[in-house]
Amino acid sequence: MPLWAENLVVLGGLAALVAAAVLAARGERWRRALTRFRRDRLGLACLAVVVAYGFVASLDSIQLPSRGAAAPVTFLDFAFRGVAREKSYSAPLARTTWSLPRPEPLRGRHLFGTDVLGKDVLLQTLKACRTALIIGGLTSLIYIPLGVLLGIAAGYFKGRVDDVVQFTYSTLASVPNILLLVAILMALGKGLASMAIALGATGWVGLCRLIRGEALRLAERPFVEAARALGQRRRVIVARHILPNVMHLVIINFVLGFSGLVLAESVLSYIGVGAPVSTASWGLMIDGARMELSRDPIVWWNLTAATGALFVLVLALNLLGDSLQKAFDPRTA
Question: How many CA atoms lie within 13 A of 172 on its CB side?
Answer without folding.
Answer: 18
